[in-house]
Amino acid sequence: MAESIEKYKMYPVNGVSLKKMIKFLESDEPFTKLITVDFLPQGMSTGQLRQQLVKSITQLRDKYYEYINLGLFDQETRLVGLGQLSKDSRVIEDYIKAASWKRITTVESYEKQRPTVRTLKELMDKWIRIDRARIGMERVSVKPELRVDEKKKEIYKFYKSDMYNKPIAKVRGLEPLARGYIKETKISVAQAETILNNIIARYNDDNQMVVFRNKDEQDAYRLINYVSNLNTALDQTPKGVKMQMQNLYRQYKITQQEQKIRKNLDLEFETREQGLELLQEHREQERIVREQILNRDGDKDELNQRLTQIREQIEIVNSRL
């Protein structure tokens, strides 16, 4: 800006334009304008910049009306150059900056297409306070949930924390969610939170436009936007709980039936000699498990369950002899 001060010394202003500029700066309108990264001097906030500009333009205004009082001209619409009101290059620069600020588009117009720091903060605030818990996403899961894989017809363990700590496309059971660009996103929701918070920390003003420096930053913004709009977690609604329990029970019965068929096939024999041999094998297994229980060699509950199964098998073989 400094090298063009000579040009701006002849920039025409009058009393009316100077008063309008001060009125603009002292209103709330500057805070509705979109601020670029290089608009604010380093380390300065919007409020501090506004105070500096008001001070400079007030000097220009006072000088203008001093000339009127001296009779150099008789009305406040008379145009004069900035260089006639001040020899201080910074004061002239401040007026030019204020004039450019007034011409900047509003944040509302810009936010329809891209985010500002304000929209990013609002997104993160709503996500942390409301949406993360609403959709059932947990940072740490100690106890897994049992869920049903309808395609494979099997029950599997699901940790809610996986949805938070792993890329969505890598979590079993979230296949319907991992579509479009989410399927290609390699960062987790946890990583996205950290990335967006680091982006916010780069800026001094809420009205600054956000510039994404790389793909991860862009993916982080899109990912948090996506998950914050998911429906309430299925297991947090009464209907969802009922459906989940029905699915689990149905799958349990299927699994139980399969185990029964498999067990019966394992206990088939054609001759009495084969039956006696099979009976002897199971009695030996019973003896080994009983010794393990007495010696406390293993989990007591698992060993007792195994012993019960072996005794059931012995009864089945006996009934067929």
Task: Give the helix/strand layout.
Blueprint: H1 5-8, E1 12-13, H2 15-26, H3 46-69, E2 80-81, H4 82-85, H5 89-103, H6 107-111, H7 117-134, E3 145-149, E4 154-158, H8 160-165, H9 181-184, H10 189-201, H11 215-227, H12 238-266, H13 272-294, H14 300-320
Antiparallel strand pairs: 1-2, 3-4
Helix pairs in contact: 2-3, 3-5, 7-10, 7-11, 10-11, 13-14
Shape: rod-shaped
Low-confidence spans: 234-238
User: Radius of gyration, rounded?
Assistant: 37 Å
Order of helices and strands: HEHHEHHHHEEHHHHHHH
Mean pLDDT: 80
Strand tally, please? 4
Helical stretch tally: 14
Distance between the termini: 104 Å
Written account of the structure:
The protein has 321 residues and is mainly α. The strands form two sheets. It has a two-stranded antiparallel ribbon. α7 runs antiparallel to α10, α10 packs across α11 and α13 packs antiparallel against α14. The longest helix has 29 residues. The radius of gyration is 37 Å and the shape is rod-shaped.
Key words describing this protein structure:
321 residues; mainly alpha; two-stranded antiparallel sheet; 14 helices; 4 strands; 60% helix; rod-shaped
Task: Summarize this entry quickly.
With 321 residues, the protein is mainly α. Helix content is 60%, strand content 4%. It is built from 14 helices and four strands.
